[in-house]
Amino acid sequence: MPAKTVNDIVALCKRRGFIFTGSEIYGGLGGAYDYGPYGVELMKNIRNAWWNFMVYARNDIEGLDAALISNKLLWKYSGHEGCFSDPLVECKKCGARMRQDKMKDITKCDNCGSSDITEPRAYQLMMGLSIGATADGSVNAYLRPETATTTYVNFKNVLDAKPHKLPFGIAQIGKAFRNEISPRGFVFRMREFEQAEMQYFVNPAEDEKYFEYWKSTRLSWWINVLGIPQEKLRFLPHVKLAHYAKAAVDIEYAFPDGFDELEGVHNRQDFDLGSHTKGQNEFKLSANVMENKDSTTKLAYSDAQTGENFIPYVIETAMGVNRAMLAVMLEAYTEEDLGDGKSRTVLKLKPWLAPVKAAVIPLVRNVPEITELSNKITDDLRKLSIGKIELENSGNIGKNYRRHDEIGTPVCITIDHQTLEDNTVTVRYRDTMEQERISIDDITKKVLEITHQ
Fold it and tell me: Tens digits of per-residue pLDDT, 46-57?
């Protein structure tokens, strides 16, 4: 049974070291979280799953890791500096500030119910910086609010370094920063978050075909790679399109509080490359772009067969990595009644997603032969380079099993006195709690078999 509320996950994350409140000892900071020992591993595994699927398994997508801090002009011509804002209202009675488009009733304060609220005003979501030795406090650079724009301005760099015919894509995973009015939903909406975005450059004549292709391809990834049930996912087309979009759809997940966005798929037409290109008037742009007199490069594609020189359309896939982690944990979280008043909480993650791939547990702490053998088995498993292998040495087998159930470890290996007699160990499986004795010589094969499911 998946988690009934996000609070189930919040409690587990704090208790077991997945996610902590940022700056917690000083009262925290809204919309900022720190990822602990197991959160780091789960996030890394989700990133790897995306990168393997989007980059390593294909011939037509290259990787990029762009700077977090960008020239101010980048965000001027992308439209963010002038348009990237939310409608902010303030309650005159209690002082609460709210996004008008997220209020339950735009005539009443969500906090106190008062009708005495201000008119909405634009609230800039980008985080400005004043950098350099001559900085005077005025904004001359920005922390990026997305990875996408830093991809577009590297279009020609990537194409020159690694030539491709259309269609081809550029993928990027990294941090983004937004000055959110009201962060919410634990790690669902934050001021500092992580995105996995891919920009797929296509001939304008084929944009609709590839928009449909990436819709189905990305939905398939959520189902077949991360294991989210199909009935928990849906497409929600955008009714009101952004100024850059020809078409857009969200992939939504059924969170405990209702469906909400995990990933967006957008047909951005030629807005982005057209906005940042030099010599805009040389191209027949479909999108309405700001005149650009500062760009030094033509972000165009030359078709070797037709001789045509044009600005490609962009099909974008944009996933929130933090939201992916939250959805995966919500779906894996299970509470089981074991009878006789006993229960357990288990995180039934796909084994290759699990933060810890296997735990080695000596039954007792004070027998040198058992300790030495446990260390050797742990070292042998670590040489497989499949992820984190933990060695427990508390001597409390029951508590160790329960802890590893909660963090999602798919298999535990117990070394006991019988191991010294017949060279066998007890292997305990997370989901069923079944146990079997196997030879020490078969441990590596068994762990590889389990963790690649």
Answer: 999 999 999 999
Cα 75 to the chain's mean position, in Å? 23
All domains of the chain in start order, with CATH: 6-74+145-329 (3.30.930.10), 349-451 (3.40.50.800)
Q: Which residues of 387-426 are buried (b: 16+ CB within 10 A; e: fewer)?
A: bbbbbbeeeebeebbebbbbbbbbbbbbbbeebeeeebbb
Q: Which residues contact 289 (CB under 8 A, 6 or more apart)?
A: 77, 271, 274, 275, 280
How far apart are alpha carbons 199 and 170 in whole angstroms? Answer: 5
Rounded-to-integer distance, Cα 185 and Cα 264, Å: 18
Model-wide pTM > 0.85: yes
Residue 239 Cα to chain centre, angstroms? 25
Burial 90-108 (b: 16+ CB within 10 A, else e): bbeeeebebbbeebeeeee
H or E, element range at 159 = helix 155-161
What is the model's pLDDT at position 84? 57
Cis peptide before 410 (omega within 30 of 0): no
Q: Are 141 and 72 in contact (CB under 8 A)?
A: yes
CA distance 131 to 246: 36
In this structure, the strands spanning 388-391 and 411-415 are unpaired
What percent of the chain lies above the pLDDT cut of 70?
98
Lowest mean pLDDT among 121-130, 236-245, 288-297, 327-336: 121-130
> In 17-147, where does DSSP find H-type helix?
37-51, 72-77, 80-83
